[in-house]
Amino acid sequence: MPRLLVVLLAACLSGVPVQAQSPQPRKILNDMLEELGGQIFLDVKDIHTTGRFYQFKRGDLAGVDNFEDYMKFPLMERTEFGKAKNKEITINNANEGWKITPKDKEPQEQVPAEVQEFINNFKTSFDYILRFTLSESKTTVQHVGSEIIDFNRADMIELRDAAKNRIVFFVDRTTKLPVKMQVRRSDEKVMREERYGNWHKFSGVLTSLFISRSTDGVKTMEIRLDGAAYNSGLSDNLFTAPRK
């Protein structure tokens, strides 16, 4: 019996579809990480970005402002909105957080629910997942299908972290880059989604200068970065409340 017929017969008897082997999810993610910068991407300790953000309500544009964001791993972030003396600032450092507005004489402490929301969001963010969650022993990874996005086939790679959050990366088969990411946290029912585009390299790290966010299919925010700096040695003082 010809070898091809033997292979076809074996596949039929085993119930496995006669086609190429199922994509290997870890390889797809590894290829994606290589495109993003490989070890340089993984070794990032801090990120500084600037740009403009567009806020949407019920899918309609509701506001536009400048922003500057500082992020330091494993769990620190500072975001400044507006310009000069009229800035509104949000600072988070692990289990502590503050908000500063032009009318406040002193930094206002975030309530526990706000701090916890920051932690939950940070630990399901693009940068944290790929640098930390992916390598954790309790994280599971599987290929769950594919989808046509912008006329290209994208593999869907699902991660489940230790907290049972469900994260799905849609990875373009041609460019090996993430087209979008979906997150369904275990503590809420909504589906959050980010779309990526306009990739540029900064200090060896490929960076999406366009990010669109939506919740349950309704657009909530659009971010357009002017640029990004990695491993610039951000001081821990940036992530503490200023003293007057």
The SSE string, one letter per element, is HHHEEEEEEHHEEEEEEE
Instruction: Round the mean pLDDT to the nearest integer and report it.
Output: 91
| CATH architecture title | Clam
Please give the domain count: 1
- Distance N terminus to C terminus? 86 Å
Low-confidence stretches: 1-20
Beta-strand residue fraction: over 45%
Question: Main beta sheet, described?
Answer: 13 strands, antiparallel
What would CATH call the class? Answer: Mainly Beta
Would you tell me which CATH topology applies?
outer membrane lipoprotein receptor (LolB), chain A
**Tally of DSSP β-strands:** 13
Radius of gyration: 21 Å
CATH level 4 superfamily = Lipoprotein localisation LolA/LolB/LppX
Give a written overview of the molecule:
With 244 residues, the chain is of the alpha+beta class. It is 18% helix and 46% strand. The protein has 5 helices and 13 strands. It starts with a helix and ends in a 14-residue tail after the last strand.
Features:
outer membrane lipoprotein receptor (LolB), chain A, 5 helices, 244 residues, 13-stranded antiparallel sheet, alpha+beta
Brief summary:
The protein is α+β, with helices and mostly antiparallel strands and 244 residues long. Helices cover 18% and strands 46% of the residues.
Task: Produce the secondary structure layout.
Blueprint: H1 3-14, H2 25-36, H3 39-42, E1 46-57, E2 60-72, E3 76-81, E4 88-93, E5 96-100, E6 108-109, H4 112-122, H5 126-131, E7 140-149, E8 152-160, E9 166-172, E10 178-184, E11 192-202, E12 205-215, E13 218-230
Antiparallel strand pairs: 1-2, 1-13, 2-3, 3-4, 4-5, 5-6, 7-8, 8-9, 9-10, 10-11, 11-12, 12-13
